[in-house]
Amino acid sequence: MGKLSKEKRPPIGAFANVVKEKVQESLRARRQELEAAKIQAQLEKETLDVTIPGVRRPLGRVHPLNATIDKVLDIFVGLGYTVAEGPQIETDYYNFEALNTPDDHPARDMQDTFYLSEGKLLRTHTSSVQIRYMEEHQPPIRIVAPGRVYRRDTVDATHSAVFHQVEMLAVDKGLTFSDLKGTIKEFLRQMFGPDLALQFRASYFPFTEPSAEVDMQWKGKWLEVMGCGMVDPNVLTAVGYDPEVYTGFAAGFGVERFAMVLHQIDDIRRLYNSDLRFLRQF
């Protein structure tokens, strides 16, 4: 433009402005087309086609062992008990000695133990939880202790080297064997039904005296389901309780046995092999 004569500058300038406006208008139109195309592509990508079959995500199920433990704990919590837990790797003191089972006690032969280094062992019962809890709490106490336990045992349809126990303990002034029987009867009848027939048989455990086995009538047969008894005075003394003032009762049972009865399972190994064909039944 600077090289043009004065006469030519106005028409050339006017023409340049027209060209500029046309170019800008074309750019605006193209930009709008591109933005509209982008929005349309995004809408098509995000549109939900309700006619397409959905993707099935199957829901998980509660394992029969967990379901049994949950039911047991619900019953005991309803009876006023507190859930207590403890370590699976224990010392000889908590697993045996404090439970009135010294080194030379013949009852140690009743439980074939997995021993570890440095005097440790895998607990053979959840009774050790009772000792730990009593050391830290004063009566009255009412606890229920679920957990995994270990024993050197031959695995077959009814036995496993790793299984689950639930134990309950009550300590207070004036507790008697009648209180124990009433608690067990109420628990088992809530667990298996109100018309359940029960019987108590004299037995022996080093940490209870007197001791008993509990049988229930199931499908016309007597089935042993748990052991129980009054807490031995030596156990109360070991945790600092005065056995002249306090008495207590305890009971314990295997969760697998209860699960097999509740769900009519014929082989304990089915509970551990993670077979989906089995687990989907629950």
CATH superfamily membership of the largest domain, which one?
Answer: Bira Bifunctional Protein, Domain 2
Question: How much strand content do the residues show?
Answer: 15-25%
- According to CATH, the fold-level topology of the largest domain is BirA Bifunctional Protein, domain 2
The percent of residues in helical segments reads 25-40%
Low-confidence segments: none
Quaternary form:
single chain
**Total strands:** 9
Give the terminus-to-terminus CA distance. Answer: 90 Å
CATH class of the largest domain: Alpha Beta
Draw up the topology in text.
Elements: H1 9-46, H2 64-78, E1 82-83, E2 89-91, H3 92-95, E3 120-122, H4 127-136, E4 141-150, E5 162-172, H5 177-192, E6 198-205, E7 208-218, E8 221-231, H6 233-238, E9 247-254, H7 255-263, H8 276-279
Parallel strand pairs: 1-4
Antiparallel strand pairs: 2-3, 4-5, 5-9, 6-7, 7-8, 8-9
Helix pairs in contact: 2-7
Protein described:
The chain is α+β, with helices and mostly antiparallel strands and 282 residues long. It has helices at 9-46, 64-78, 92-95, 127-136, 177-192, 233-238, 255-263, 276-279, and strands spanning 82-83, 89-91, 120-122, 141-150, 162-172, 198-205, 208-218, 221-231, 247-254. The chain has two domains: 1-52; 64-279, Bira Bifunctional Protein, Domain 2 (BirA Bifunctional Protein, domain 2). The chain has eight helices and nine strands. The strands form two sheets. A seven-stranded mixed β-sheet has the order 1-4-5-9-8-7-6, sandwiched between helices. A two-stranded antiparallel sheet has the order 2-3. Helix 2 crosses helix 7 (255-263). The longest helix has 38 residues, at 9-46. The radius of gyration is 37 Å and the shape is elongated.
